[in-house]
Description:
alpha+beta, 5 strands, 4 helices
Amino acid sequence: MGIRHETSSPYSPHQNGTAERQWRTLFEMGRCLLIDKGLPKFLWTYAVQTAAHIRNRCFNNRIKQTPYHMLTGNQPDLSKMGIFGSECYAYKHDPKKLDSRCEKGIFVGYDKNSPAYLVYHANSGKVSKNRLVKFCKKRGIEKQTQTDVLDDEVELFPQQYTCGESSGDVMFLKTIMEVRQMCLKEK
């Protein structure tokens, strides 16, 4: 027995569907992480690595445990996980006497070879490894979005409810929606 190495034909991803599907899932997660926080595309490798880190610590129904636990035999420590793209402060390695002891950055992942965090510093454009990082729980990176302007004539709620009107919950929700609609009309 043992492990047998097999290769697939060039430009034939359908021959290795399982692995290709896993890659697709990781890339989709990475893309969502970047878009959600409005981070630049060149940080995509960190986003995909973080997606893999998160996925390995999530419960898998097929194996009835986390992949991390299956590989190491230890439960993952979720208390040390940060929110990708969140604002953080990383302690400087060699600060001068009168300089600040930490530098503002953006959390972009975990180091593979040590228990350190990866922090992107927008002012220098570099990613550093830092063990001592303080996360800002209340604030994230402000993403620039376009806001849509609603016209006064736009109908926000439907006027008629046709399905399940006999249910008490539906009647309660209908009343709440009618009250909200009246409040919006008053404004």
